[in-house]
DNA sequence: GACCCATAGTGGTCCGACCACTCTGATGGT
DNA sequence: ACCATCAGAGTGGTCGGACCACTATGGGTC
């Protein structure tokens, strides 16, 4: 007799994670749907509540599940923002050459997103971009500048119409990541250059010129990339 | 008196995750280094072993830690491959319009990687690419074709010299992802077209022509992208 | 010197209890 | 009949302890 627990590969928790992931992949669990209780789930898979909790915690951190205290466990909407939140961890824990690689990726994606935005951005979205551009130029507080800088690019990424790309870029621009790289970059008086580059991006958006937008965004990220590369070299 | 446990935001497990992440970010824990035992860690943070285990499990799934039964808990190398393994989950759980967005991202990254590879690929790497190309054309078994197809692009991504980009592309080409999309795509007799496109990519690599390589790769992914878009439309 | 194995130490699993929070339905007043 | 209130059940969160499975180490044996 096969009781269905034949394989026995890996830890029981790992197997539980795969089982739940499979249930979602096969459509047996829909986005937003509520799961059985931890106790029931554990009983169904024949494992202890402790092990099941570890599996649930892992999937929670991955943005697949969401646990609401006192209410239950739910599948997230499974949208880009939910699943790619963990992408920020990569940016936060990367160092040295890996940071350059991440900036290289950001350059490629950011320039593409900016080009798409130039073709698709609405008047309202453009107004929002301008708001952050002027606010960024109206203060000398590095913290505030950084916040508006992030919002500036976030608005553009949103206007590109690819939520997944926007979510990845969000992770590649996470607060801690930017703070670590930009701290040194802007100490070299790069504020003026940054403002010029942002202005160029904005002009391209207003002109609805995708190629100009792509070039401006690539140059913008490329500047930081080259600076960081030089920092690591010698 | 402040006992240092003032904040109390979120669950204790979540706080433990942040603490360990911070330790790594601050360099107090180096890649490959061994951590204290679960029991010691729990005591240090003043939480139960159960909660600490959930934190460790979460970081294990994220590719930050690695638990070796009977030996101890270690920090991974923190390289792109380790941290981006979870990226495959996104591809596996995405559906509908989100799949198109992922293919759009793959088109951008794959074309960039292929262009870089055209400029940097070594003779050995090129030979490996050719091996998979011929093997792919020498069989009719869809499974085998898929395997060599994946390896073909994997070699090219590796030759591009950006490990992080290669790791992301790996996630975007995970077995289950490709299987889901390509099943339908190739049922329409797309084998011939796929072979032509792969040949074009290979020619560009041999000619060391980055722009031709970029175009060929973009067209290759774009074909699948358009097909999928059409599938979802009506 | 090489091999083997008892042993201590570590992560993996399970259990049971209790706490903190949420939701619901019965209660009582208007 | 309606609504505000609140006690109870149900759920996730935390804890402590026990035992199992595996690894690594060092001493003993040949």
UniProtKB/TrEMBL annotation, chains A, B:
Residues 10-78 form the HTH gntR-type domain. Keywords: DNA-binding, Transcription, Transcription regulation. One of its GO terms (molecular function) is DNA-binding transcription factor activity. Gene3D superfamilies: GntR ligand-binding domain-like, Winged helix-like DNA-binding domain superfamily/Winged helix DNA-binding domain. The keyword Nucleotide-binding does not apply. The keyword Acyltransferase does not apply. SMART domains: FCD, HTH_GNTR. It comes from the Bacteria. Pfam families: FCD, GntR. PANTHER family: TRANSCRIPTIONAL REGULATOR, GNTR FAMILY, UXU OPERON TRANSCRIPTIONAL REGULATOR. This is DNA-binding FadR family transcriptional regulator. It comes from Streptomyces paradoxus.
């Amino acid at each position: 007799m096969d009781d269905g627990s034949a394989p026995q590969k890996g830890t029981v928790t790992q197997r539980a994670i795969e089982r739940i992931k499979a249930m979602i992949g096969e459509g047996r669990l829909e986005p937003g749907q509520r799961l059985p209780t931890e106790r029931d789930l554990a009983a169904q898979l024949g494992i202890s509540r402790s092990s099941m909790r570890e599996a649930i915690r892992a999937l929670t951190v991955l943005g697949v599940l969401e646990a609401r205290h006192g209410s239950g466990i739910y599948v997230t909407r499974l949208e880009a923002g939910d699943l790619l939140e963990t992408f920020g961890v990569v940016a936060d824990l990367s160092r040295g050459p890996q940071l350059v690689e991440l900036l290289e990726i950001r350059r490629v994606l950011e320039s593409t997103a900016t080009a798409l935005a130039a073709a698709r951005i609405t008047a309202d979205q453009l107004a929002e971009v301008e708001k952050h551009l002027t606010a960024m130029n109206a203060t000398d507080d590095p913290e505030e500048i950084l916040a508006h800088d992030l919002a500036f690019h976030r608005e553009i990424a949103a206007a590109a119409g690819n939520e997944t790309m926007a979510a990845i870029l969000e992770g590649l621009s996470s607060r801690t990541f930017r703070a670590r790289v930009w701290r040194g970059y802007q100490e070299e008086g790069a504020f003026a250059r940054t403002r010029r580059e942002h202005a160029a991006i904005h002009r391209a958006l207003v002109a609805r010129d995708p190629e100009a937008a792509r070039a401006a965004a690539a140059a913008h990220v490329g500047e930081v990339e080259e600076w960081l590369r030089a920092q690591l070299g010698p």
